[in-house]
Amino acid sequence: MRLSRFVIPVLVLVATPATARAADWRLGMEALTDLPLQAGGRWWVEAPYGLHLDTSLGSLPPGYVDLINSVVVEFEGYGEDTATLISAVVSSSLVWRIHLGWRPSADWGFYFTAGYGMVAMNGEVAAGKLILAVLGQKIAEGVPDANGSYRASSTLHMVDAEIGYMWSMIEDHLTVRLALGFAGTVASATTVEPRFQPAQPAAVAEWTRRSAQYLDDIYTKYLFLPLISVGVGYRYF
Q1: Cα–Cα distance between 196 and 139 in angstroms, integer?
Q2: I want to staple 101 with a disulfide (CB 3.0 to 4.6 A). Which of 2, 52, 146, 204 is the partner?
Q3: What pTM does this model have?
Q4: Under CATH, which architecture does the 24-235 domain have?
Q5: 201-236: per-residue pLDDT in tens?
Q6: CA 51 vs CA 54, 76, 152, 162: distances in Å
Q7: How far apart are CA 44 and CA 95, in angstroms?
């Protein structure tokens, strides 16, 4: 009798279909866009009780950068010169986000998440554009090494929050997701380096430090983005 108390539950577990034992777990992936922050892919897993973890990887498309610049310039946050500079810096980018969240009910797709995002970007900037944005003036005599170009690299750290709904279709394998969210820049680290051998290294070092600080101030002051997220994917189970 005592032995059966242990053997019977084991036999029941073994005989239970794998899908039933994993019913409280869900796993999927999707193609997504978080307008105007990224376009890429997202992977998610849901544990029992609706606990949810997802991560995404993508890039910041040039059209999204133009949209951000247009809105900020329209509301007089910064000028066209700075917008042109930012577009040059974001010639290549990588966006990574990770969120922890909760889906309150197993019977419907409402969820909310919060987490962290990182945006790494870099590009080459002509000295004239950099000077015009930072100093507000065109190249003039006396500006150190004003005819070269500079390499600018920025890493943005963001806090994210999102509320949305996911629909499951075609035997619960096809997923469609729509969400509204927010991403705010809380810290930024930028480096600006000359792409030439400076004639006045000390002056250029001070100039690049000042330029990097200018970009960091712009990011942490203006890059607070409302997001519209759309994803289409596949749920494994």
Answers
A1: 17
A2: 52
A3: 0.85
A4: Beta Barrel (2.40)
A5: 888 888 899 999 999 999 999 999 999 999 999 999
A6: 10, 41, 39, 15
A7: 16
